[in-house]
Amino acid sequence: MQLTLEFGGGLELLCESVKIHSVNVDPQVGEEKLTMKDLLSWVRANLIKERPEMFMKGDSVRPGVLVLVNDCDWELSGQLDTTLEEKDVIVFISTLHGG
Amino acid sequence: MGEAEVKPKKAGPVQCSICSQRRAALKRPKTLEQICRECFYAVFEEEIHRVVVDNQLFKPGERIAIGASGGKDSTVLAYVLSELNRRHNYGLDLFLLSVDEGITGYRDDSLETVKRNEIQYGLPLKVVSYKDLYGWTMDEIVKMIGLKNNCTFCGVFRRQALDRGAAMLKVDKLATGHNADDIAETVLLNILRGDIARLSRCTSIITGEDGPIPRCKPFKYTYEKEIVMYAYFKRLDYFSTECIYSPNAYRGFAREFIKDLERIRPRAILDIIRSGEKFRISTSAKMPEQGTCERCGYISSQKWCKACVLLEGLNRGLPKLGIGRTRGLNNGLECDTKQSNGVKNIQSKQCGTLDF
Amino acid sequence: MACGAGNCQSGCFRDDDDSVVTEKKKLTNRTLSSGSDIDLPNHHNLCLKCKVNETLASSGTVSVDGDIGRFCFDCFRGNLFGKFKLAVTSNAMISPTDNVLVAFSGGPSSRVALQFVHEMQHKAQKNFDASRDRSLPVFGVGVAFVDESAVSRIPSDEFDKAIQDMKSIVSNLAPPDKAFHVVPIESVYSSNGRDRLEELLNAVKDVTGKEDLLQHLRMLSLQKNAYENGYTKLLLGSCTSRIACHVISATVKGQGYSLPADIQYVDARWEIPVVLPLRDCLAQELNMLCRLDGLKTMEVLNSPHSGINGLVASFVTLLQEENPSRECTIVRTAGKLTPFHFNQIPESDDSNVHLASRRRQKKFNLKPNESVPPESYCPICNSPLSKSDHINLSSLGSDQTNADIFGATCCPSCQFQILPKEPVSMEHFYSLLPQQFVVQAKDRSFSMQRQLREQIQDFLLSDSEDGT
């Protein structure tokens, strides 16, 4: 599944200062759909190069990190349970940096 | 400022609870309403307008400096204030005021952002630098004193630099971008540190009315989440790198606690501010007597102001001068820096930006 | 009392002024003569206070953390009892004619509270027996355990065993005998308590709200029991750590105004005044005392906090680990907030009140200008309401139901986290409330009007006095 991931608000520093990543993520074997929960663990394993605790806490993002799926607050689409589709754009923004 | 292309989610898009027409784009932490982008812009700006009006933050004809760091809060503040000034005929002369601490790879980059804001919003920019005011850049200070206590220097110098810059601009007031999350955090920190004097004034929307330049916080009731969402949706140009001299400074217990609270009860942030406003603090509690620094004329409760003491130490090669357990400007801040084991600290921004 | 700084070795905890001076001189001399090395041989193994016995840390019988390990057992226990006694005497918590009900949860704090009250009573009894005129009576002590089995899921065999253990703890204490009351939480209702209580709690959706409501009901049932059994004081084991958590959670819930009411040594807004003699003792110290003194506790009955309260508890624990004086600082900050007029034992006309306890009574932090009672309290949590939270009853329309009026007299925090939002559920919730809450609310809306009338009358009176 083709997805665009964007890191902002300082989170890009955790992935070698690259803001936009075009990635290919597939549902786990035996699963039909890909959820945000799956994506987060994929991101943690594949994109985050340092201080993963700045990005995640438990199996979700760290409180203070905003998530938008196709420019829509993920709190509206079910957070971790949000189902992702082909060509979705997922944005992660930290609110914790700078002032 | 083109807005990103929107591809609606197929699985039942939520309708905006205000206009009932467009697709909701976010959930407001303050009200839990699900609203669309356009309605969000409208309520966000209107609420700040109400805060400005209800608290009489500005008077027509005033010259107002906006403390601009290039970060999200001050960028959104500059944008919204210039917008409201136009829309509601506040009649204000707005300026951007930035402090150049002299930190290569951090402040020089963020100053570029502020310079772009100057053009984008058409607001005159004034930059005051530590080098000009004190003869030292933070790079030079760190070279001399190392990474311990450097945030103390920076915090003390910044506070005074903003006042001096404001005086040069001949402004009547300084508006800062402190948001609701910042203020809630400060309330907690002052409780944790036992600082009753700061606790009593940290929730005031206007401070320093007896000082040279009053300061005000138009974002006092504005959630950080909404500021970041606003900046993102509007594609505002802001800078978000951490200071190279206090990396991890934002990994504070208190901030993390605030964010954990927000997750289970978003209203907690406003409740903390509300508590701070209602604390029964005896007005007779002693306040340090304000005089002026014999050396530079800046307000000071001591013979010399903190900045002059620190500066004297630097110039005489005794940088520890003024650092320690004296009951001065930064009492409490140093204690916590000392107690921290370098891994985590109770506060998020050691660098003194919360020092209000 | 040690100075609180973990690494302070100056001996400033000493009571004796002279010895402090000599100690300081010694330190200075040593510093001058031998530079930075000021360590005494064996210094670390001897108790900081008595300098005779081995420290708890070095005796190695138990693992101890922090400052506690720097004292010997006797001095540690003495310190703790000293804090308890100072709180009792300087706030006139217990007078010889009092009958004190100790709320015992089975946890370490209330276990120590019970122990210390008992020791105090035991000593008073000895003095009484030895005195010739026997003019000073000995205060009475009773123990109450709030039985929450109606709302918690504790296996009944474990629960019964805990009750048995508590009974034997109380009965094994030396005379005078102490009554042991098991107070069912549903006793706040006159009938059908279990069902109504369950339904009431189910009507509260917010987990924190549910927990806090249960806490208020607990207090209500203790008050009721104390009243019915002729007790004159209700003694709680709330320690510094517990109070520190309350300071933060009350702040987080927007209760900044009423916060100082809850954290003083004395809280006499209740029918039976509540006293907190362990206010200056850390949970860590009380746990340690229970271990060292072999005081049995029943942990099975204490459920962990949830929601906001849980978050606050882990935050405070984290802070305390980072800095062992943090809990004290939090309570000290909140202690600087202005308390309410009811935060002291009401002056009584009772001539039996012994002068000695009067004389020792210091009025900590109570401003004389604090004599005006606040006009109104939240009928659920009994918090004093700030001016801006007072409702203007006349502004409520005439078509308001009792439930509406009740809701409007609650504090904003209870309105948010306890009251149901929809009118229908609110009616239902209101119908399930214990009578006590409802009566309080009614009393208060009337007393507000009465007070206003009285104030006007006072004003008129003083006016005419000036005129004559």
From TrEMBL, chain A:
Keywords: Cytoplasm, Isopeptide bond, tRNA processing, Ubl conjugation pathway
Primary residence: cytoplasm
Database matches in SUPFAM superfamilies: MoaD/ThiS (SSF54285)
Record-listed cross-link Glycyl lysine isopeptide (Gly-Lys) (interchain with K-? in acceptor proteins), residues: 99
1-thioglycine PTM positions: 99
A Pfam short name: Urm1
Domain of life: Eukaryota
Modifications made to the protein after synthesis: C-terminal thiocarboxylation occurs in 2 steps, it is first acyl-adenylated (-COAMP) via the hesA/moeB/thiF part of the MOCS3/UBA4 homolog, then thiocarboxylated (-COSH) via the rhodanese domain of the MOCS3/UBA4 homolog.
UniProt-annotated location(s): Cytoplasm
CDD domains registered for this protein in UniProt: Ubl_Urm1
Pathway(s) per entry: tRNA modification; 5-methoxycarbonylmethyl-2-thiouridine-tRNA biosynthesis
GO molecular-function terms, A-Z: protein tag activity
InterPro entries from the UniProt entry: Beta-grasp_dom_sf (IPR012675), Mopterin_synth/thiamin_S_b (IPR016155), Urm1 (IPR015221)
Transport as UniProt keyword: no
GO CC aspect terms: cytosol; nucleus
GO terms of biological process kind: protein urmylation; tRNA thio-modification; tRNA wobble uridine modification
HAMAP family recorded: Urm1
Assigned protein family: Belongs to the URM1 family.
Summary of the function given for this chain in its UniProt record: Acts as a sulfur carrier required for 2-thiolation of mcm(5)S(2)U at tRNA wobble positions of cytosolic tRNA(Lys), tRNA(Glu) and tRNA(Gln). Serves as sulfur donor in tRNA 2-thiolation reaction by being thiocarboxylated (-COSH) at its C-terminus by MOCS3. The sulfur is then transferred to tRNA to form 2-thiolation of mcm(5)S(2)U. Also acts as a ubiquitin-like protein (UBL) that is covalently conjugated via an isopeptide bond to lysine residues of target proteins.
UniProt name for this protein: Ubiquitin-related modifier 1 homolog
Native species: Vitis vinifera (Grape)
Automatic annotation (TrEMBL), chain B:
Family in the record: Belongs to the TtcA family. CTU1/NCS6/ATPBD3 subfamily.
Protein keywords: Cytoplasm, RNA-binding, Transferase, tRNA processing, tRNA-binding
Residue span(s) of domain tRNA(Ile)-lysidine/2-thiocytidine synthase N-terminal: 64-247
Pathway the protein contributes to: tRNA modification; 5-methoxycarbonylmethyl-2-thiouridine-tRNA biosynthesis
Compartment(s) where it occurs, according to its Swiss-Prot or TrEMBL record: Cytoplasm
Function: Plays a central role in 2-thiolation of mcm(5)S(2)U at tRNA wobble positions of tRNA(Lys), tRNA(Glu) and tRNA(Gln). Directly binds tRNAs and probably acts by catalyzing adenylation of tRNAs, an intermediate required for 2-thiolation. It is unclear whether it acts as a sulfurtransferase that transfers sulfur from thiocarboxylated URM1 onto the uridine of tRNAs at wobble position.
Pfam family, one: ATP_bind_3
Record SUPFAM superfamilies: Adenine nucleotide alpha hydrolases-like
UniProt protein name: Cytoplasmic tRNA 2-thiolation protein 1
Sequence ranges assigned to domain Cytoplasmic tRNA 2-thiolation protein 1 C-terminal in this UniProt record: 291-321
PANTHER family: ATPASES OF THE PP SUPERFAMILY-RELATED (PTHR11807), CYTOPLASMIC TRNA 2-THIOLATION PROTEIN 1 (PTHR11807:SF12)
InterPro entries cross-referenced by the UniProt entry: CTU1-like_ATP-bd (IPR056369), CTU1_C (IPR032442), Ncs6/Tuc1/Ctu1 (IPR000541), Rossmann-like_a/b/a_fold (IPR014729), TilS/TtcA_N (IPR011063), tRNA_thiolation_TtcA_Ctu1 (IPR035107)
Main location: cytoplasm
Source organism of the structure: Vitis vinifera (Grape)
EC nos: 2.7.7.-
From TrEMBL, chain C:
Subcellular localization: Cytoplasm
One Gene Ontology biological process: tRNA wobble position uridine thiolation
Keywords: Cytoplasm, tRNA processing
Main location: cytoplasm
Gene Ontology MF terms: nucleotidyltransferase activity; sulfurtransferase activity; tRNA binding
Biological or metabolic pathway of the protein: tRNA modification; 5-methoxycarbonylmethyl-2-thiouridine-tRNA biosynthesis
InterPro entries: CTU2, Rossmann-like_a/b/a_fold
GO terms under cellular component: cytosol
The keyword Cytoplasm is assigned to this record: yes
Family: Belongs to the CTU2/NCS2 family.
Function: Plays a central role in 2-thiolation of mcm(5)S(2)U at tRNA wobble positions of tRNA(Lys), tRNA(Glu) and tRNA(Gln). May act by forming a heterodimer with NCS6/CTU1 that ligates sulfur from thiocarboxylated URM1 onto the uridine of tRNAs at wobble position.
Protein name per the record: Cytoplasmic tRNA 2-thiolation protein 2
Native organism taxonomy: Eukaryota, Viridiplantae, Streptophyta, Embryophyta, Tracheophyta
